[in-house]
Amino acid sequence: MSALLQVRGLGRHYGQRIGCEDVSFDLHPGELLCIVGESGSGKSTLLNTVAAQQAPSAGSACYRQRSGGWLELGALGEADRRRLAREEWGFVTQNPRDGLRLNVSAGANVAERLMALGMRNYAQLRDIARGWLERVEIDPARIDDAPTSFSGGMQQRLQIARTLVTQPRLVFMDEPTAGLDVSVQARILDLLRRLVNELGLAAVMVTHDLAVARLLAARTLVMQGGRVVETGLTDQILDDPQHPYTQLLVSSVLTT
Amino acid sequence: MTYNFAFLDEDTKRMLRRALLKAVAIPGYQVPFGSREMPLPYGWGTGGIQVTAALLGPDDVLKVIDQGADDTTNAVNIRRFFHRVAGVATTEHTAEATLIQTRHRIPETSLREDQILVFQVPEPEPLRTLEPREAETRTLHALADYGLMHVKLYEDIAQYGHIATSYDYPVLVDGRFLTSPSPIPKFDNPKLDRSPALMLFGAGREKRLYAIPPYTRVESLAFDDHPFEIQRWEHRCELCGSGESYLDEVVVDDRGTRMFVCSDTDFCSGRRTEAQA
Amino acid sequence: MTADLMLELRDIGKSFELHHQHGARLDVLRGLDLRLHAGECVVLSGPSGAGKSTLLRVIYANYRLSFGAVHLRHAGRWLDLARATPHEVLEVRRHTLGYVSQFLRVIPRVPALDIVAEPLLQAGMGEGEARRRAGDLLHRLNVPERLWLLPPGTFSGGEQQRVNIARGLIVRRPILLLDEPTASLDAANRDVVAQLLAEARADGSAVLGIFHDEDMRDRVATRLFPMQALEAA
Which residues contact A75 (CB under 8 A, 6 or more apart)? Predict the structure, then answer.
């Protein structure tokens, strides 16, 4: 199977400060990769660089398009970057308010990406939006309600529906469950797990929560100080951590 | 006190004409220009006046309308202004005018190739209410990434059951640029499409000009199952009997008696004169 | 007739280095060789602390090998799992190598039936058929039907263990690793598990397991593999 994403020696510096450095990994279709590490370890910098939201300072990230051709993401023009973001990728932000359009209805939020792809049938847009609300466990009767009237967990589920409605090939997620109640978290994790399986999504997810990695990701990267200190199968990393930092991370998890 | 012909100095007019040429060359594209202080406040048509001033020649015949009427304060003042600072002939008859400055309407009488229509525009950016960042809307235009505009139309249908936007209805010019037609009623949108007359738009406060050159394709956005439709009335004009023109509802006495009359005063009086003859 | 060799461990060593306990080093396995053939059931025996569970986890690539090689037959060729890429390991786990631990890893909100059916879905089976087969297996393991649509978080230890066995055995894999899967089962259910294992072996699966219960061990084992704790280095 050929990779969807190839990252080689990727680095992103902010002046003298290292955001992330010398990161390499492959992501295959249908695979969810977690990036774990504490705050400031460079997880989000890595995610944003791989998602072409900022240019790398070193190395490369290449993406294999639906058409089969490879794109070097660091050299991507704005038009191509937006086309990818619209047609092939999805991005789920930690704070749903950053990823939603708060001044339009839930239905419009879900339908927006479809309209951006040129869908111009209102009835069909409504049907798809209702279907997706149901899929993320939001009452379809609330299709015309503003997302501001939703709870945090509902907003996050709405953001997931809005992102996945176009069936992206690759999804980037930045701490999608952080800042939510534990019970709400479980619901979203279960939802993500189901959707990832059903849609065969490839995804890169940043999280500081090892339990999230265990539940969702077959493979995990552990980052510290901007560098990847350990990488491998998630169960290997959690059950037999090699690097001192990973051992610390694993042993710091509270078990219930 | 004497003014330079048409109030503006020649350098400013040259700057405006350059911007207008660019606007005509790229139909629907918003061209920035150095908007000047005018002797009336923003929102009163400073953009339109500057465009008009840059175009006027001594032989032009100027008509100014506001909401279709030649006799409203704004129209009368602007017409008098140019009569005074340029000495040009003015008219209230659409057919006689070479240059028509307008706010909120396109005349009912069909325009010709030798006429120019100048629109006063308060907000040139059709995406502004959805996307407040100027840098972002410019990028969206550059990439023709217009899915966002349909979000607004979607919201209309979701809220009102139909596309309730009734004026400043967004159009796609020449299949490329999403454009605000200025706050004309959507009733007038079809008149923009392949119009023989040159249409110029000036936004003084926002410092933008744009153009729809003659015979350019102008398409009003819509959904497949909610096509673009113009307003219809159950009434006819009570003065001239027209069933095809845009009607205003007017309260005529203190008891709330209403009547429907043409908003285009020249068109209405022309029909009445014809009927009497 | 000699059955096909399925798994060959050569000179295996495993030690743990505990960086946060003054760099303490625990040697658990050293110089271990083992061969496992299709159709046999080898039971690891030895005192607790002999490294039996560690060995199974090393084979499953859950623990990383410190020394030696884990050769296994996968999709008609030999592969050293200790040197395989993560993607190869996942592929091997999906199709060739099964592992049933003592404990079910509960996934919040996912019903028992879906937990059992999941490996079939991942192997590409349709949802209806996968759930039907999952139901059949849960039925055989005497998990009452009223529990099937509940998440097993609240089940008893025995019920959870049976769900776990069902999940582990539902896809017929050529090599099975079992870490005390019957520890909290009653006699009747141990019988069912013994039958299931016999069926798997008859189908050509090779089984390597840990069974502390001697009765169970005698029923399923074709051979014992004795292990001893390493003396403190």
Answer: none
CA of B227, closest CA in chain A: separation in Å? 10
Active site residue B68: no
Calpha distance C118→C127 (Å, rounded)? 9
What is the residue-level pLDDT of chain B in tens, covering all 277 positions?
A: 678 999 999 999 999 999 999 999 999 999 999 999 998 888 889 999 999 999 999 999 999 999 999 999 999 999 999 999 999 999 999 999 999 999 999 999 999 999 999 999 999 999 998 889 999 999 999 999 998 899 999 999 999 999 999 999 999 999 999 999 999 999 999 999 999 999 999 999 999 999 999 999 999 999 999 999 999 999 999 999 999 999 999 998 999 899 999 999 999 999 999 998 7
| CA-based nearest residue to B231, from B252, B211, B260 | B260
Per residue in B164-214, pLDDT tens?
999 999 999 999 999 999 999 999 999 999 999 999 999 999 999 999 999
| Neighbour subunits, A (≥3 Cβ pairs < 8 A) | B, C
Superfamily of domain B10-220: Bacterial phosphonate metabolism protein PhnH (3.40.50.11310)
* Chains B and C in direct contact, meaning 3 or more beta-carbon pairs closer than 8 angstroms: no
**Four-residue CA torsion sign, B111, B117, B123, B128:** positive
Phi (first) and psi of residue C23, to 5 degrees:
65, 30
* Average pLDDT value for residue range A105-121: 95
What single letter denotes the amino acid at residue A25? F
- Cα(A49)–Cα(A58) distance, integer angstroms: 11
Q: Which amino acid is at B276?
A: Q
Phi and psi angles of residue A152, each rounded to the nearest 5 degrees, phi first: -55, -40
Q: What is the ipTM of this complex?
A: 0.89
Tokens representing residue A205 in the block:
């997810």
pLDDT reading at C231 higher than 80: no
Length of chain A counted residue by residue: 256
Backbone φ/ψ region at B6: left (φ over 0), alpha (ψ -120 to 50), beta: left
Tokens of B36: 């000047």
Complete DSSP assignment for chain C: -PPPEEEEEEEEEEEEEETTTTTEEEEEEEEEEEEEETT-EEEEES-TTSSHHHHHHHHTTSSPPSEEEEEEEETTEEEEGGGS-HHHHHHHHHHTEEEE-SS----TT--HHHHHHHHHHHTT--HHHHHHHHHHHHHHTT--GGGTTS-GGGS-HHHHHHHHHHHHHSS--SEEEEESTTTT--HHHHHHHHHHHHHHHHTT-EEEEE---HHHHHHH-SEEEE--PPPP-
Nearest to A125 by CA among A106, A148, A97: A106
Q: Is A165 helix (H, G, I), strand (E, B) or coil?
A: coil
Please tell me the distance in Å from A82's CA to the nearest CA on chain B: 9
What residues in A contact B145, CB-CB < 8 Å?
Answer: 82, 86, 116
| pTM for this entry | 0.88
Q: What are phi and psi of B178, to 5 degrees?
A: -70, 130
**Number of CB pairs < 8 Å for A and B?**
61
* Secondary structure of residue B239 in the 3-state scheme: coil
Measured CA to CA, the distance from residue A100 to residue A109 in angstroms comes to 7
Lookup: tokens for C95: 């199709």
